[in-house]
Input
Amino acid sequence: MNLIIDVGNTYVKLAVFNGSLLEYRNTVKIESVLKAIERVRHDFVSIERAIVSSVGRLNSNDVHQISNYFNLLVLNSDTDLPFTNLYETPKTLGVDRMALVSASVSQFPKNDVLIIDAGTCITYDFINSQNHYLGGAISPGLRMRYESLHNLTANLPFLNTEIPKKITGASTEQSIHSGVVNGILNEIDGVIESYKLKYPDLTVILTGGDAKFLSKQLKSSIFANLNFLLEGLNFILQYNSDE
Output
């Protein structure tokens, strides 16, 4: 069994896989991660291997402690990946993006795949049918856009995410919702259509914290999978364990 540890800036996602089957998933605050892992060890005594993916602030002492429990792989730019990385600056490719592309290799081999991760930022990652990762794009996510409108202007309010009732906002609040949400939806649909002009058989995956909110409103045909990153990390761990 494998333990997956996906570290964000504030929260940590923990998952346990039995082969490719997800048996457990939980989200905890970063300061509680060792206690949470202790509970997982108690409940899943067959765990032998673990992987840490950290875009946040998991300290070296915590990593060392986890390595005492399991055969630990810390994902970084030197980790063997199941695809050919043609990114011009491979050392700067985020570990979350590595995991998402690896998930696509596992689940959609020999396909042209665009992975859209709608989180703090919206990342677009493309891998072609020859298993070549070519790169993608990064843009501000939903909350970042709401926060920027509030923080970088004098009078605009800070709003919670809301589906706009109509395209033409009749008030400042309605206008913000229309601009932020419709802006992102049109961006995503536009990016998908641009890729499809070159890759007609494109497979599109939508994941991330805002995937559920956005998926029902997009015009394009997509696969929504909220566990795609965790599945990718599990595949990377299996890939490195089988060598």
Notes: The mean pLDDT is 94.
